[in-house]
Design goal:
- The complex is a heterodimer of chains A (about 280) and B (about 425).
- With about 280 residues, chain A is mainly α.
- Chain A has one domain: MetI-like (MetI-like fold, Orthogonal Bundle).
- Chain A has twelve helices and no strands.
- In chain A, α5 (about 115-125) packs across α7.
- Chain A is globular and about 75 Å long.
- The relative contact order of chain A is 0.12.
- Chain B has about 425 residues and is mainly alpha-helical.
- Chain B folds into three domains: about 10-50; about 60-160, no CATH class; about 190-415, MetI-like fold (Orthogonal Bundle), CATH 1.10.3720.10.
- Chain B has a two-stranded antiparallel ribbon.
- In chain B, α1 packs antiparallel against α19.
- The chains are: A mainly alpha (about 280), B mainly alpha (about 425).
- Chains A and B meet through α1, α4, α5, α6 and α7 of A and α1, α10, α11, α12 and α14 of B.
């Protein structure tokens, strides 16, 4: 954003000040994530940069915390990772199916009470997690699903569907309904029309909603804290316990892996968003 | 339509109007059926449990169920003088049953909440009861301890009679119903919940303000920069948004610790001395800093999506008509961004008011919020009905803001990423 030549000096100063402020805010947003990388390679047990690290001495760096994460004795991360992935996968599947179907109904112009139903379906995203946690815990305890994978999966479906509903209805808002009418007039039944025409067109939105649901489940700790037993421990639970009790560099190794994972998800989500905009002919 | 013109008929001979209405209705049902599975799922697993919370928060039948005969006998008692023999007898029978079932401890705890000193006289009664003879229970019970002859204790027992209570809600705002039935505040030094509510509001408000002040310039920059630069900078906003909340909190715990990088930096530039490093974590400062950074993307994204739609020619027009850049900004650009400001602020405020994880980890004792208190009562004191009452009070507040948000912004306008 170059300034025109005729800009008066005090606006020039103001403009650079504005850019400086923006730089600071971006730094504030992104920099904290990058402290974790170097410290996870620390050879020592402390969570501060050692003298050796400041001198970039190769001996000050090591992979010992990564080894501890994978091979450490009595380490909970293997089980936690397995549980997290299983729960997140099933929760994503459930959220995507329920959310997409609901979004199809909501986007229909015949839908009665659209506003109020939409508001109700989005509410798990708005209601504070602690309240959702308490309520879901009471329910799961009553039906005997507390401390089971099924209970946690159901809870995460509740929390994940709003994201799918939002992304899929957004995708459907630019959807040309004449193509489905064309399909029906050519003799296709509704299911076939959905699978062959609608789904391929809204797929980017569905997948990005699914990614949101996956991340929500994978990162969710408040509700799981109420629901999980010893066998249902997840990565967030282990991180939570670790951060509260003994802050060990192993947590930083796990955190680094999670940042890498979220970067991958971000890249996927961005590519999908652009593809979706291209398909729907929205050019920005 | 005049009566002479024939009604338009479909091929089946049904008037078109009727046929159309029928089709419309069919479509309505079809759309509703699609929404049904999710709606039913949420009603069963989510809405109904929240209703259950409401029930738990007012349900107070525990004592009533433990002393059924006593409360029946007490119906006749006016509460002025000591109750009659039959009340004593009923109480003896109820209590004997509880002792046999070994559940009298719960009763003692509950009654002790109502009036101090109940626990010890119930324990004493339990010991002496074995030697009781049949008949004249009033004398025998009053002989166990002099407090059994004190009408105050029987009044306290009667006060516990109603099956439903709003006492937990009163407790949540540091009030209680005293012996005369008036609602009064608890003593000044025990008003902990009021402090927590005010602190939660204060933190949510300031975090919203900080987020707004920081998000506005960068959202503007992102919206006005050419695509290739803004896409790159957008990653700075989206990466934290996608990163685990616990990871981000962990990074703040490392940064803000006493030997941490922020303190190192302060020492380096000479702001503080090395042996006098300030405590930046486990207090409100930690909560503010970490929550602001974590919630910032939720402010940037709605602002950005609104600013993106504002044509740059509007600012140019404002300037060409004689406004200085500041006037043009204030009179033209800023009013157009107000929908985005409203959306972002309400969203951040709603999220901040119910925050749990970050205050619990970096907040210490002075930086915890109402959510942490709810979790404390769920996990430590096991006073679930109080946790439910507090949760519902918080929920009422959040839903009120959500309603405003829905009116102003519309939930279907929430944008993600």
């Amino acid at each position: 954003m170059a300034l025109p030549k005729y800009t008066e000096p005090h606006y020039r100063v103001w403009h650079y000040f504005y850019l400086f402020i923006c730089g600071c805010v971006f730094f504030f947003l992104i920099a904290p994530l990058f402290v974790i990388f170097p410290l996870s390679f620390n050879a020592e047990e402390f969570l501060v940069f050692s003298e050796g690290m400041k001198r970039l001495d190769p001996d000050a760096f090591s992979l010992r915390w990564y080894k501890d994460m994978i091979y450490g004795t009595k380490n909970p991360w293997g089980l936690a990772a397995k549980n997290s992935f299983i729960i997140a996968l099933f929760a994503t599947l459930g959220s995507v199916i329920l959310g997409t179907v609901a979004a199809l109904g909501l986007s229909s112009r015949h839908m009665p009470y659209k506003g109020i139903i939409m508001a109700a379906l989005i509410s798990p995203m708005i209601v504070p997690l602690i309240i959702s946690g308490v309520a879901i815990f009471f329910f799961m305890a009553k039906v005997g699903l507390a401390a089971t994978h099924t209970g946690i999966v159901l809870a995460h479906i509740i929390l994940g569907t709003p994201f799918v509903v939002i992304t899929v209805t957004a995708t459907l808002s630019g959807f040309d309904h004449s193509v489905t009418r064309a399909a029906s007039s050519l003799g296709s039944d509704p299911v076939n029309t959905f699978m062959k025409i609608t789904l391929p067109l809204i797929l980017p939105g569905v997948i990005s909603g699914g990614l949101f649901a996956f991340v929500t489940s994978f990162d969710e700790v408040v509700v799981v804290l109420f629901l999980a037993g010893l066998d249902n421990t997840t990565i967030p639970i282990q991180m939570w316990t670790g951060l509260r009790e003994q802050l060990s560099p192993t947590i930083l190794a796990v955190a680094t892996c999670l940042i890498v994972l979220s970067t991958l998800i971000l890249v996927t989500a961005e590519l999908l968003r652009r593809r979706s905009e291209r398909i729907r002919g929205i050019n920005r | 339509m005049s009566s002479e013109t024939q009604k338009i008929l479909t091929t089946d001979g049904i008037p078109l109007e009727v046929s159309l209405k029928k089709a419309e209705k069919k479509n309505k049902i079809k759309a509703f059926l699609l929404v049904c599975p999710l709606l039913l799922f949420l009603i069963i697993t989510y809405v109904f449990p929240i209703g259950d919370m409401l029930y738990r928060s007012v349900d107070d039948r525990m004592v009533t169920n433990m002393l059924p005969k006593t409360y029946k006998a007490m119906e006749q008692w006016d509460g002025k003088d000591l109750p009659e023999e039959e009340v004593f007898e009923a109480f003896y029978l109820d209590y004997k049953k509880l002792v046999e079932e070994k559940t009298f401890g719960k009763l003692a705890t509950q009654l002790n909440f109502e009036k101090n000193g109940f626990k010890s006289i119930l324990k004493k009664l339990k010991r002496k009861m074995k030697k009781f003879e049949e008949g004249n229970y009033k004398e025998q019970i009053m002989g166990v301890h002099k407090r059994w002859a004190n009408v105050e204790y029987w009044r306290a027992l009667k006060r516990r009679a109603p099956s439903y209570t709003y006492a937990k809600y009163l407790k949540g705002i540091d009030m209680y119903e005293n012996e005369d039935g008036n609602i009064v505040q608890v003593p000044e030094d025990r008003r902990i919940h009021k402090i927590l509510w005010l602190r939660t509001l204060e933190v949510a408000l300031f975090v919203t303000i900080f987020c707004f002040l920081m998000a506005y310039p960068i959202a503007h920059l992102l919206a006005t920069l050419p695509m290739k630069y803004s896409n790159l900078l957008m990653i700075c906003v989206l990466l934290p948004f996608w990163t685990s909340l616990l990871v981000r909190t962990a990074s703040w715990m490392i940064l803000l610790q006493q030997q941490g990088i922020v303190n190192d930096f302060f020492v380096m530039i000479g702001l503080v001395s090395d042996d006098n490093r300030p405590e930046m974590m486990y207090n409100k400062t930690g909560t503010y800093v970490a929550m602001t950074q974590i919630l910032l993307p939720f402010m940037v994204l709605p602002l950005y999506s609104v600013m993106k739609t504002i044509s740059p020619s509007l600012m140019r027009a404002g300037k060409s008509l004689g406004g200085t850049p500041f006037v043009a900004f204030w009179k033209v650009y800023f009013p157009l961004t107000i929908p985005g400001i409203g959306a972002g602020c309400l969203l951040v405020f709603i999220l901040a008011i119910g925050y749990y994880i970050t205050p619990a980890l970096v907040g210490g004792a002075s930086g915890t919020l109402i959510s942490n208190q709810i979790a404390f009562h769920m996990k430590s004191t096991l006073d679930w009905s109080f946790a439910s009452a507090m949760g519902l009070m918080l929920l009422a507040g959040v839903l009120a803001i959500y309603w405003v948000y829905n009116k102003l912004v519309g939930v279907d306008n929430i944008k993600l990423g």
